[in-house]
Write a structure and sequence with these properties.
The chain is an alpha+beta fold. It folds into five domains: 127 residues, no CATH class; 65 residues, no CATH class; 123 residues, no CATH class; 65 residues; 223 residues, no CATH class. It is 29% helix and 19% strand. It contains 20 helices and 26 strands. The strands form eight sheets. Strands 3, 18, 19, 20, 23, 24, 25 and 26 form an eight-stranded mixed β-sheet that branches. InterPro entries: DrmB, MZB. This is MrfA-like Zn-binding domain-containing protein.
């Protein structure tokens, strides 16, 4: 690809991938040039920053379509989701969700901003302007890891900043930075010439540098380059046994303690020499000046104390903050940039529910919510300081509705008595005891209840419409209902991310607490006004299983299940979260629900032509619910009414029965049928029950087709044709 602009590092990544499990803030992404980049904090994303600055400068700004058009952004309409993030993630001042704009890179590696709908609407409202800048449609990233080495001829090892300094000093391509990208070796010109108007003799194309593929990560989410200059000097001075000792202060080691005897400035001129003859060795570091060297054998045992680096936060990041866990200093672990342990994203999604299904706390408008925050933080705080034994209900009883309306009017809020009643109800609900000890389970249960308690949608909506189907007689014993969801909207954002190991929720005093991990934004929680999000629209099918029948079935086969699913089975860390959820809601019930979801998705692929990658599941599973929403979203193959059409009684009956019959046999049987060695999985493989990772909410864990169709204990055994 030709180098044309300073945006050469831009990597074409879809907007949905930016909030997915492996490509968000702080992740390491491969580029077309063979290197790696790291997306920076969402605080640097221009389309997030312009909205945040507007709200900071003018807190009374109303979040509406006019503001969106004026700023050139798209707001995600999901007030219930915003309330949830305020409460569960302590984002107490969160005002809105801003959608990540869709963009494509052209052949010149530039964004086609001119024809973008957001830019067109912006120009309509600002006809005197020049339109939106390219930064509104890109996510900034840094080159990471920062160390590069030359393949030939010198094998020099330096940071990208030092390589660029050499590039300018040597006047390679006139020293222009756009030709340096992606990092090129100023010592290694090729015979190729740039097609641009560079002066003759300055228009050579230079070979690419090779990026070091090793990093250090810690359980708190920090990431650091291995300081190769410090490592080389420390090993030569102290020996590997000391340097590789757990907790060694590698980042605090002074390279002046082991100077180069041949160098004028005492600095070693590092070279990276690969050793392809021995797979267990990464090669060696060598000083090109004095000739001393050290092997990289055993480098994976490096465990220095963590300096708290956050490279995704850019210059001025909170580096060198003491990194601790439960009062103990945290040590870093060596990892390859392609390792799964480098990045674990924690995402959360929300099914849009119209206001007719919401309680007063989640149906407030933006201005009403702002007055509620004012009521809570100003007047009630003063009242509670004077009356520490009084409750919110006492405060409301001490003041009239008219007084509250006057307070709102004096503060610039125009609310009616009816509006104020809803605000007061939301204010009082903060003292109410939650109906669940798990905030995320409670959030899903509210969605499940909308489907379970309504035979059809209460009102017409472009984001949620559904209706019951007449259950065929053969399915009535097994399902409490099946619904066609004609339209739905799903919002999603990334909450946190972690490294080394997947964070696990903890139950403290009966309440499920989720780890905060590392945030995708730079500011403190209480200063965050805007979060990035995506919203997709589609259609789906909702299935609710008969829980009375499930309870009878579990009791009838309890001896079999206790033997098949032992509770004391050893689990690795990455499986503990799923295992704990299964234990809490019922192991047998989860295997039943999750496997049924997968085989229906697989059958839709067989019988209707849907690729499973275009389908997704939304599991409703806990002690009090057992259902699944299988849906497809805009941009997926096979949407536009096709999935809802399959929900007709005769078609869905055939799909379920055929899926169950197909689950009896697998091309990998008898090995698959008799499997009991995989973590959390039994009779399941990609030939029969596993689907695309993007379609499954639980990483293809908790699957067993025998629980559906086994002759002895299968839940649907009487529905199958033998």
């Amino acid at each position: 690809m030709e180098i044309r602009t300073l945006t050469q590092y831009n990597q074409g990544i879809g907007k949905y991938k930016l909030l997915s499990s492996n490509a968000g803030v702080g992740a390491i992404l491969p580029t077309k040039s063979g290197g790696f980049v790291m997306p920076m904090s969402s605080s640097y994303w221009e389309f997030i920053r312009v909205v945040s600055d507007k709200l900071k400068n003018n807190p009374e700004t109303t979040i509406d379509q006019t503001l969106a058009d004026n700023l050139g952004v798209e707001f995600i309409d999901d007030p219930r989701f915003i309330i949830f993030l305020r409460n569960s993630e302590s984002l107490t001042k969160l005002r809105c969700l801003v959608g990540i704009p869709h963009i494509e890179l052209d052949g010149w590696n530039k964004c086609n901003v001119t024809a973008h709908p957001l830019n067109q609407r912006y120009i309509e409202r600002n006809p005197q302007g020049t339109g939106l800048k390219e930064g509104m449609f890109t996510v900034p990233a840094i080159t990471f890891p920062r160390w590069f080495f030359s393949k030939r001829p010198s094998h020099d090892l330096m940071t990208v900043d030092d390589w660029f300094k050499m590039w300018k000093e040597r006047r390679c391509n006139d020293g222009l930075p756009e030709y340096f990208a992606p990092p090129r070796d100023p010592k290694s010109p090729t015979t190729k010439l740039h097609k641009s108007r560079l002066p003759e003799g300055k228009n050579q194309v230079y070979n690419l540098l090779e990026q070091v593929s090793m990093v250090l990560i810690c359980r708190n989410g920090h990431m650091s380059d291995i300081p190769w200059d410090k490592y080389f000097c420390a090993v030569k001075k102290l020996g590997k046994d000391i340097v590789h000792k757990e907790g060694f202060d590698l980042f605090g080691f002074d390279t002046d303690e082991y100077p180069c005897p041949e160098s004028t400035n005492g600095k070693h001129q590092l070279q990276w020499h690969e050793n392809r003859a021995h797979s267990e060795s990464f090669g060696m570091l060598k000083c090109g000046c004095c000739g001393q060297s050290t092997s990289l054998e055993g480098i994976m045992n490096l465990q220095p104390s963590c300096p708290g680096h956050r490279p995704w936060e850019g210059i001025g990041a909170r580096d060198n903050v003491k990194c601790t866990h439960r009062g103990q200093t945290v040590n870093m672990k060596w990892a390859l940039v392609t390792s799964n342990s480098v990045y674990y994203a924690e995402n959360f999604s929300s099914l849009y529910l119209p206001s007719c299904y919401l309680d007063s706390a989640t149906s407030l408008s933006d201005s009403e919510q702002r007055f509620l925050n004012l009521l809570t933080t100003r007047w009630y705080t003063r009242y509670s300081q004077r009356n520490p034994d009084k409750t919110r209900n006492d405060y409301i009883n001490s003041i009239t509705t008219e007084d509250l309306i006057d307070k709102a009017s004096d503060s610039g809020y125009d609310v009616t008595a009816q509006d104020m009643n809803r605000i007061v109800a939301a204010f009082l609900s903060a003292d109410a005891e939650p109906s669940s000890s798990d905030s995320r389970e409670e959030y899903r249960f509210s969605e499940f209840s909308v489907f379970q308690n309504n035979s059809k949608s209460k009102e017409s909506s472009d984001k949620l419409e559904f209706k019951d189907i007449d259950l065929p007689e053969s399915l009535k014993p097994y399902f409490s209902k099946i619904q066609q969801v004609e339209t739905l909207g799903v919002s999603a954002t990334q909450i946190n991310f972690s490294r080394v190991q997947m964070p696990q929720p903890e139950v403290v005093d009966g309440v499920t607490r989720y780890p905060s991990s590392m945030k995708i934004f730079k500011e403190p929680n209480e200063e965050v006004l805007v979060m990035p999000a995506n919203q997709t629209f589609g259609e789906g099918l909702f299935f609710s299983l008969n829980e009375d029948l499930i309870s009878q079935w579990v009791e009838r086969n309890s001896a079999v299940f206790q033997k098949r699913y032992p509770q004391n089975r050893h689990m690795e860390n990455i499986y503990e979260n799923v295992a704990a959820m299964m234990q809490k809601g019922g192991v047998e019930k989860f295997y039943l629900l999750h496997t049924l979801s997968h085989i229906i998705m697989k059958e839709l692929e067989f019988s209707c032509g849907y690729p499973t990658a275009s389908l997704k599941e939304r599991l409703y599973f806990s002690e009090r619910m057992c259902g699944v929403l299988i849906y497809t979203a805009d941009g997926s193959e096979g949407s536009m009414g096709g999935l809802v059409w399959q929900g007709q009684p005769d078609l869905i009956e055939n799909i379920i029965k055929t899926a169950l019959n197909r689950a009896i046999d697998c091309s990998s049987d008898p090995i698959c049928w008799e499997n009991d060695s995989d973590p959390l999985n039994y009779a399941a493989c990609f030939s029969c029950a596993m689907v695309s990772e993007t379609s499954c909410e639980q990483r293809n864990l908790g699957l067993d087709r025998r629980i559906l169709v086994d002759d002895e204990f299968g839940f649907f055994k009487d529905l199958c044709l033998r």
